[in-house]
Request: fold
Amino acid sequence: MDLITPAFGLIFWQTLIFLVVLFILGKFAWKPILGALKSREASIEEALKSAEKAKEDMANLKADNEKLLAEAKQERDKMLKDAARMGEELKDKAKEDAKAIGDKMIEDARATIESERDEALKQIKDQVAELSLQITEKLIRKNLSDDKSQQELIKDYMKDIKLN
Amino acid sequence: MNKIFDRKVSRTTFSYLICFCFSCFSMAPIYGASEDGENKTDFIMHHVQDAHEWHFATIGHTHITLPLPVILYEPDEGFHFFMSSDFVDAHHNKIEKDGFYFDDHGHLKAKDGTRVFYDISITKNVASLFISVIILFWVFLSIGKRYKRDPLKAPRGLQSVFEPIIIFIRDEIAKPNIGEKKYEKFMPYLLSVFFFIWFNNLLGLLPGAANLTGNIAVTMTLALFTFVITTFSGNRDYWKHIFNTPGVPWWLKIPVPLMPLVEFIGILTKPFSLMVRLFANITAGHIIIMSLIALVFIFESVYIGPISVLFGLFMNMVELLVAFIQAFVFTLLSAIYFGLAVEEHEHHHEEHKEKLEEASA
Reply:
């Protein structure tokens, strides 16, 4: 039957033409098309990857910023605290110093008072001695012949004065 | 401005393509004009077969035909060139020319029976083949140029029509069946054969067109291409599987090589099935559509017209689908055969050893 008998001429042309089709399309159509599809896919993948990376970088940057901010905040808090503490310390020290100075002044005053009192006492003693001498002198002058008991009395007086 | 123009052009090209596909519905009136006295269904077989002239229609007694070149090659005398119109007179009676004539089956014969010659005429199918190849080149060289010019730009126009199909063939046919590593060298063939078959299937649906992909010579040649590529890319494992199939009991191989024989027949039936499948599907589709049209002539009734038209319309729709499916199936099976030929079997030696051990135990 003709329908299922391959004709020589058609086989010849089909083989020839199909080889030409394979060659021409393979070289000028499929090669650039497949190459372009491949490179396009690669570039899309690349773009997606870099976008992902940019996103990651952004997140990292944000985290860094936040970290920096937190550190700055911490630093500030620390500084404030330090300053407050230093102020407190200064105040305390000033207070202490003032107290010390006051104490010292009081001490000095006390010492001065003491010494002045001692001085005063000494002067009084001297004066008492002088007075005693004068009294004694007067007594002696008045009463040289006075008996011994009187002199002893004077001595007793003197002793009393000294004790005072 | 240029952009707008480009877009307009690509849109018109696309709509032409669509028109091209759908204009096949006008097939009916052309084949409707059958000659008086002729068998009412003769035109069907006439259409599905090749011819030396391109017959479009017969109105009354006037044949509208395009004469085609007849080329003969005689090993002794070289080439002879004629036109198909040289072999008929003004009244469509067959005449002889330079000792050659057409017999009743349309075959070219020499009057002197001892003359050996080869008929490589530009028949209706060859002419149709040229047209389809011109369309293929026009479409794919133009989009190929654009891909070459700016590969990273988004596709547009014809490019965006064919790009999904090309990607489909690459990702759904080639990659899964041949493998990620080896598919690339088969891509040019798979793409060429797919678009060749698809375009010719669609062209065959046009009114008055040739039935190229429903011709056994064409499908045989295409199947032989697949067979040759499969055979030449077969690796050691492929041949081992055919002549010394692993995992098969030894008595199926020696002394009667039953399995090798079956496997060897298998490599021949694969291209044979490719050839018959495409031929039968496309030819059957054409015969069905024209049989539906022939109903009008058989019943000689106006009332059968709507039925013919409705069923013909439906069959045309189905044929549009079949046009794609057959191109797809041919490409898919070719890819599967290539995949079998280049497949690497890494664990076979171990498997074989295990089997031997089991057998000895």
Observations:
- The longest strand of chain B covers residues 53-59.
